[in-house]
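Quick one: C-alpha cells for this chain, please?
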Amino acid sequence: MTGYRFIKFDAAENTKSKFEQMLDLFTQILTYTNGDASEALSWMSELDKKYQFTNNEYGIGDFIEDLKDNGYLKENPADGDFKITGKTEQTIRKKSLEEIFGKLKKSKQGNHHTFKHGQGDEVSSDTRPFQFGDMLEQIDFTESIRNAQINHGVESFQMHEDDLHIRENDFKTQTSTVLMIDISHSMILYGEDRITPAKKVAMALSELIQTKYPKDTLDIVVFGNDAWTIEVKDLPYLQVGPYHTNTVAGLELAMDLLRKRKNPNKQIFMITDGKPTCLKIGGRYYKNSFGLDRKVINRCINLAGQCKKLKIPITTFMIASDPYLQNFVQEFTEMNQGKAYFANLDKLGSFIFKDFESGKRKTVY
C-alpha cells in the first residue's frame, strides 16, 4: 500500500545562508546598476534600512568582507573603490539563466537532436543493413556476427556483405546565433527600463549555450547610431546611450559575423523597442525620428531579403505595443520569412528560449 511519511519541517535546513541570500540580491542589483559595485552596495544599504534584512550578527560590512574573501569583489587600496570580478560576472549569467530559463543541467556537447541520421557525434541504438559507402568504423560487429550465424549456421561460420549491419549515428546540429540588442535612448524612455530585461536575456542565452550547447556560437551586437560587438563578460556593464536606432548597421554587422561562421545553421535574434530612425550614409548620419521614414525602412526590408537568400532567419522581439509599428514589423518579417513577437518585458526570456530550442529541432543539413 502506497503511503506518505510526514516529518517536521526545519527551516534552518531548507534556506540559504545569510550570505547566499544577500548575494542573490546583490547580483540582481548589479544588473540594474550596470555592474557598478559601489552603487549596488549603496542600494543594498538603503534597502536594508527599509526592510532590515541584516541583524546584529551579520551586517553589510560582514557581507562586503565575505564578497572579497570569496572572490566576488575586489577593492582598490588607493581609493577604496570596489569592482566586481569575473566570478561575479559568471554568477550573474548563471542566475539570469536560472531566472529566465529555469535550472538546466549540462548535457553532452552539441546536443541538438534532429530527425535524420548520419555521421555524427552520438551513437544511436538503431541499426540498418550495410550500404556501399558506409565507413568500416560504423559496422556493428555484434549484430553482424549474429546475422551471419543465423544466415549460415554456427558450425561453418562465414560472413557476407548481406550480414553486415551499421550502427546509426545521430546528427547533432550546430547553430551560430547573433543576438542584436537595441541600446537607443528609447530603451529607458518614459520611465520604463527595457534594457535590463534585454541584458538578462543575453546573459542567460550565453550561459545556456556555454553549458548546454558548447559547440554553438553566440555573437552579441549592440546598435544605436552605429553597431558594434561586445563580449559576454561586458554584458553586466551595458548601458543605453543618447542614440537613435540604426537597425541597418546592426543587421549588416550581424550578417558579416554569420558569413564567417562555418555552421550551416544560422539565425538572428533582434530585441528592439522602436522603429528604425537612423542610417549612416558615407560619413554622415541620416536621422528621422518622426514617423516611419521609407528611406530607412526600405534599407531594412532589403537586408531582410538578403538574409533570406543567405538562409538566415530573423526573429524580431518588439518590446513595445505601438500599433503603427506592427505594419513595419509584418513587412520586415514577411520579406525574411522569419518570426516576430510583440513581447512583454516579463515574457521576453521565455519567448526567446522557446524559439531558440525549437530551432534546434527543425533545421537539418
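The first strand starts at residue 73 and ends at 75.
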